[in-house]
């Protein structure tokens, strides 16, 4: 309910992480043993499993419409330069976001209902096929230009724009909590399509409303406020008071919902221009505020119930007394006298206010709100169009990735950790070769340590050319390689003119 959408550039994150790891490795250590490297690798894999805990080897398209986590790829579907420019939105599932678009700029949309993955369809460029599904024509992995699911619904979230304000989301600048609407209406019907909202935008405050609040703070209070989460604006319900909410756009697209505002299971209306209080422009058209009217109705209902109970009790006592006085033992009831019919229970919608509150507002829903809807033949057709109001939705989650260590039950080859794969490889060779390999490794480790020492002492980064040059010297083939390159250059001028580089593959350790 309160998750924040985020923009992710997988390539940038990976390159920054790799650069940080290299700097730490080369500047803080003179050498690293195989055991230390494997332990570091295992920790990195554990961190990766925590961030990406699910398997990403299967696209969800074959499963049909699902409520699932989606991502928008801004590399494949960049937002249009202007609102009037043609644009085709697309969303990809969790697995495709990693396997097919891992090097692209992604926007995390979190969950959307009744959605089928667009990867490999005409909504994506043909240069970015779905690598997880088979091409029905060739039977090989990689498919593109298929027909997309016609039932998918899109909003501006797929362009990295969120809330009624339509701002681009920047995770580095965004503060505070955003809330996702339950989404009764789509963009086509006037709703928001499960959009994410800033609290201040729901109640008519500017985005920088907190800056005005900080003007009255002391310097110490301002410093403390910088380190804290942005508070909810005044007039907005407390997070513990509601489970989810329906924005004013979706309420306007389903006006029958308005009568439930302020009743059991629902908070009073939260107005677009004045939060939980009643807007002043409606005072002339309504004799009393909605909240006061609700309280008065509740009080009158309780009062009438008490009066009716007392009156019924008094009448019942009076009838019993009169019956006892006038009773004749021999008298029997007439055979044709009809028994009284029990009163039918009232329908839930009959206890709702006769008229809905005025103005434009959102409704915040308590945990038990689904139990409060009237399901009589007259009201049920309204609920039939919105299954999310009848029962809690299930969100699809891919299978959890297999973990290779013993603490988690082991794993198969290809899914285990680097240490598992190394041990499996060693177990498949004879003892003599294993010992020889260990001796070669020890020799190589000492040489590499000697090579890295000056870089570590000076804090200089190790380039690919440094490593290539060092291994040429380590193999003792520096001069032979130069000689071979010179001979190849002289004898293969035609190849050079065609773009050849005269290089020859050489084997090494």
What structural keywords apply?
elongated, 15 helices, 3-stranded antiparallel β-sheet, 4-stranded antiparallel β-sheet, alpha+beta, 509 residues
What is the percentage of strand-forming residues? 5-15%
* Biggest sheet layout: 4 strands, antiparallel
Helix content: 25-40%
Class derived from helix and strand content: alpha+beta
For the terminal residues, how far apart are their CA atoms? 54 Å
- Compressed to H and E, one letter per element, the order equals EHHEEHEEEEEEEHHHEHEHEHHHHHHH
How many distinct beta strands? 13
Q: What are the low-pLDDT stretches, counting only 5+ consecutive residues below 50?
A: 6-16, 25-30, 279-302, 404-415, 498-509
Walk across the major sheet and give the strand order. Answer: 1-4-2-3
Individual helix count: 15
Overall form: elongated
Mean pLDDT: 77
Global Rg? 35 Å
Plain-language structure description:
With 509 residues, the chain is an alpha+beta fold. Among the domains are: 50-161, no CATH class; 163-276 and 353-392, no CATH class; 427-476. The chain is 36% helix and 10% strand. It is built from 15 helices and 13 strands. It has helices at residues 10-28, 34-51, 94-99, 199-202, 209-214, 219-227, 248-253, 290-326, 380-384, 387-390, 418-427, 431-458, 464-475, 478-491, 493-497; strands spanning 6-9, 66-73, 92-93, 105-115, 130-134, 141-143, 161-162, 167-168, 179-180, 196-197, 244-246, 270-271, 361-365. It has a four-stranded antiparallel beta sheet with strand order 1-4-2-3. It has a three-stranded antiparallel beta sheet with strand order 11-13-12. Strands 5-6 form a two-stranded antiparallel ribbon.
């Amino acid at each position: 309910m309160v998750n924040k959408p985020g923009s992710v550039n997988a390539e940038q994150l990976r390159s920054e992480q790799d650069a940080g790891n290299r700097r730490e490795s080369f500047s803080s250590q003179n050498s690293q043993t195989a055991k230390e490297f494997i332990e570091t690798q295992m920790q990195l894999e554990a961190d990766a499993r925590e961030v990406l805990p699910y398997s990403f080897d299967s696209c969800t398209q074959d499963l049909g419409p699902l409520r699932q986590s989606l991502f928008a790829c801004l590399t494949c579907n960049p937002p249009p330069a202007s609102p009037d420019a043609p644009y085709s939105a697309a969303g990809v599932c969790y697995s495709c976001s990693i396997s097919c678009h891992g090097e692209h700029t992604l926007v995390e949309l979190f969950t959307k209902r009744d959605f089928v993955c667009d990867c490999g369809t005409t909504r994506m460029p043909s240069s970015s096929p779905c690598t997880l599904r088979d091409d029905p024509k060739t039977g090989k992995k990689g498919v593109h230009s298929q027909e997309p699911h016609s039932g998918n619904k899109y909003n501006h979230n797929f362009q990295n724009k969120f809330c009624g304000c339509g701002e681009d989301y920047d995770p580095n600048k965004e503060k505070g909590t955003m809330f996702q609407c339950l989404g009764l209406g789509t963009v086509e019907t006037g709703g928001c399509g499960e959009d994410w909202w800033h609290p201040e935008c729901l109640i008519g405050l500017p985005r920088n409303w907190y800056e005005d609040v900080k003007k009255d703070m002391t310097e110490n209070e301002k410093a403390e406020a910088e380190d804290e989460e942005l508070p909810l604006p005044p007039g907005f319900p407390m997070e513990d008071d509601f489970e989810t909410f329906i924005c004013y756009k979706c309420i306007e697209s389903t006006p029958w919902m308005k009568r439930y505002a302020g009743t059991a299971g629902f908070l009073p209306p939260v107005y677009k221009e004045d939060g939980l209080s009643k807007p002043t422009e409606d005072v002339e058209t309504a004799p009393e505020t909605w909240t006061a009217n609700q309280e008065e109705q509740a009080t009158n209902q309780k009062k009438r119930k008490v009066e009716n109970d007392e009156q019924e009790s008094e009448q019942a006592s009076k009838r019993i007394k009169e019956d006892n006085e006038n009773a004749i033992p021999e008298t029997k009831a007439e055979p044709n006298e009809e028994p009284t019919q029990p009163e039918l229970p009232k329908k839930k919608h009959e206890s709702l206010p006769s008229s809905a509150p005025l103005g434009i507002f959102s409704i915040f829903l308590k945990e038990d709100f689904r139990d409060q809807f009237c399901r009589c033949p007259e009201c049920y057709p309204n609920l039939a169009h919105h299954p999310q109001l009848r029962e809690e939705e299930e969100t699809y989650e891919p299978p959890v990735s297999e973990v290779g260590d013993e603490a988690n039950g082991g794993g198969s080859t290809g899914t285990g950790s680097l240490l598992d794969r190394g041990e499996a490889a060693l177990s498949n060779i004879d003892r003599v070769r294993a010992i020889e390999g260990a001796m070669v490794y020890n020799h190589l480790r000492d040489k590499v340590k000697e090579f890295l020492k000056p870089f570590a002492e000076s804090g200089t980064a190790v380039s690919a050319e440094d490593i290539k040059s060092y291994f040429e010297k380590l193999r003792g083939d520096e001069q032979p390689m130069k000689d071979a390159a010179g001979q190849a250059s002289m004898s293969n001028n035609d190849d050079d003119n065609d773009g050849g580089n005269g290089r020859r593959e050489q084997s090494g350790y």
